[in-house]
User: Which sequence fits this backbone?
């Protein structure tokens, strides 16, 4: 017969949140679930009569959870007591009887974590004294704060100008299909749109205050760090509810808060939903003067989390690169039959075109750098003719290995491996002929060699963007190319994009040009350099004020402005 401990242990192990990689129970996770009156935990405990009788009391047909009694039992040394040495045969930092790396209950603790911060700042220079509403003690105040608010002062802008608003455009399911800009407190606005857009947002991008001491986050200086974390936590929690099952959130941040934000987002979205941390070069040390000790800070970061990581669909992106000198051969008569192809060194081919007998002679004349630049231009222009040899591993497909063997027997004969996608594989002397065109793509309207995008972005220019989009913002503005890349990698036309730190409207401008529906929320008053002016330029209301980025297609359309 099972002991009570065994029965309880077996029940708790049914919930994967309460077990580690060795299928051992995590005491802190169970206690945390009890403190939160976790409905799944309660359901598990109620499913067994013996357990229910132990930790619940019945009052007029209702079973009341005796939380303290349950927690005391879980904390008792006789529960989860290992019968073998607690140190096992592992080396590492530990908390209690668990190695730190095996514990999943790492959480970020800070003052006011259990509070709601309204964050009602409306001007960058404001330094408001904010009130923290405790989630338990100030429930009435929180309910009033977060209940949906009436949106007023509607305006609609189209290429024809401002129009009267009679009704909202909706789809057959009643979902709003208009681009929205909401002016007002972003926490209140997020809760106000939650009922309409819960589970509908494909991409959330935010560029919140960095809490550097020089930006727009000027709350409660005595608790500035914890205030910022509370501010972020309150908004990220509701943002998560707005994301669709295939959605993702991108949060851009600097060195100052990246570590704390990472742990906070692990806690809100769970560590399992973390996708990437991107490092972006945002500035160069031109004219750099030493103000603070240490290296010049040129990087910012973007944290990406999915609502459900496995459902998120990444659309591959590429970045331009230099000519890859491994592509050193060219088929000079590719229009002929394959059996008649003539193959030359591309360096020798270019040398002859330039009037030299050999590449050695050309390099002597121009220098290697200039000469290889000419080779790169030729390779790009004739990328369908230029190739490199790629080795065939033993784990290649049966037909490819067969072609390899045949090509080794018949030297200098090209063997064709036919494939279903019609991109036949060509094998010569035991190696695959990989053509340069596979690396060449059109980026921002320019044909260029490319590599797959990594999580280090250094190819986006940040200089000279202060007036981009027809609005002037000297600090904190993000390039349209950055937002374009994020939108391209995570959405398709018609998907909904949300930015609740809308600023000068870069996210909205890019989303509009790319045919995405968008929602922008902004509470800071940028006056004549705000998002309204920028988006008027996008749709042509203010012609020649903010020219469209030449790499992004202009789409006819309109958007809405609401004052909260």
Assistant:
């Amino acid at each position: 017969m099972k002991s009570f401990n065994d029965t309880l242990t077996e029940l708790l192990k049914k919930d994967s949140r309460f077990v580690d990689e060795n299928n051992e129970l995590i005491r802190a996770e169970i206690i945390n679930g009890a403190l939160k009156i976790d409905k799944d935990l309660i359901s598990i405990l109620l499913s067994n009569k013996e357990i229910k009788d132990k930790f619940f009391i019945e009052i007029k047909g209702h079973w009341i959870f005796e939380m303290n009694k349950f927690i005391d039992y879980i904390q008792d040394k006789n529960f989860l007591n290992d019968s073998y040495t607690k140190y096992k045969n592992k080396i590492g930092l530990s908390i209690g009887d668990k190695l730190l790396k095996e514990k999943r209950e790492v959480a970020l603790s800070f003052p006011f974590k259990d509070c709601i911060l309204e964050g009602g700042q409306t001007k960058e220079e404001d330094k408001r004294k904010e009130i923290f509403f405790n989630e338990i003690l100030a429930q009435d105040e929180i309910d009033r704060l977060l209940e949906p608010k009436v949106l007023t002062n509607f305006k609609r802008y189209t290429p024809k100008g401002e129009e009267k608003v009679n009704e909202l455009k909706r789809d057959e399911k009643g979902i709003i299909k208009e681009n929205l800009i909401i002016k007002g407190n972003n926490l209140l606005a997020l809760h106000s749109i939650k009922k309409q857009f819960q589970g509908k947002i494909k991409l959330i991008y935010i560029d919140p205050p960095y809490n550097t001491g020089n930006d727009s986050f000027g709350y409660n200086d005595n608790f500035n760090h914890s205030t910022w974390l509370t501010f972020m936590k309150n908004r990220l929690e509701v943002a998560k509810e707005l994301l669709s099952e295939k959605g993702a959130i991108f949060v851009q941040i600097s060195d100052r808060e990246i570590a704390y934000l990472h742990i906070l987002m692990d806690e809100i979205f769970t560590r399992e939903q973390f996708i990437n941390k991107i490092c972006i070069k945002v500035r160069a040390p031109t004219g750099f003067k030493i103000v603070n000790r240490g290296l010049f800070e040129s990087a910012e970061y973007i944290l990406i989390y999915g609502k459900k990581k496995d459902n998120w669909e990444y659309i591959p992106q590429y970045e331009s690169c230099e000519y890859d000198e491994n592509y050193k051969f060219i088929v000079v008569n590719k229009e002929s039959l394959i059996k008649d192809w003539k193959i030359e060194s591309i360096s020798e081919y270019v040398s002859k075109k330039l009037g030299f007998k050999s590449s050695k002679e050309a390099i002597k004349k121009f220098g290697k750098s200039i000469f290889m630049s000419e080779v790169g231009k030729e390779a790009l222009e004739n990328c369908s003719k230029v190739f490199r040899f790629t080795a065939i591993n033993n784990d290649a497909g049966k037909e490819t290995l067969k072609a390899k063997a045949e090509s080794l027997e018949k030297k200098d004969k090209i063997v064709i491996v036919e494939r279903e996608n019609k991109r036949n594989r060509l094998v010569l002397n035991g190696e695959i002929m990989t053509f340069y065109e596979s690396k060449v793509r059109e980026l921002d309207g320019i044909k260029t060699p490319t590599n797959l995008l990594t999580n280090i972005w250094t190819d986006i220019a940040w200089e000279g963007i202060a007036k981009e989009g027809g609005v002037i913002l000297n600090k904190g503005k993000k390039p349209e190319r950055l937002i374009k890349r994020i939108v391209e990698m995570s959405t398709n036309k018609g998907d909904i994009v949300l930015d609740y730190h809308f600023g000068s409207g870069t996210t909205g401008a890019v989303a509009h040009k790319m045919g995405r529906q968008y929602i922008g929320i902004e509470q800071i008053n940028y006056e004549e350099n705000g998002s309204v002016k920028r988006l008027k330029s996008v749709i042509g209301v203010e012609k020649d004020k903010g020219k469209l980025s030449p790499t992004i297609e202009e789409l006819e359309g309109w958007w809405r402005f609401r004052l909260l």
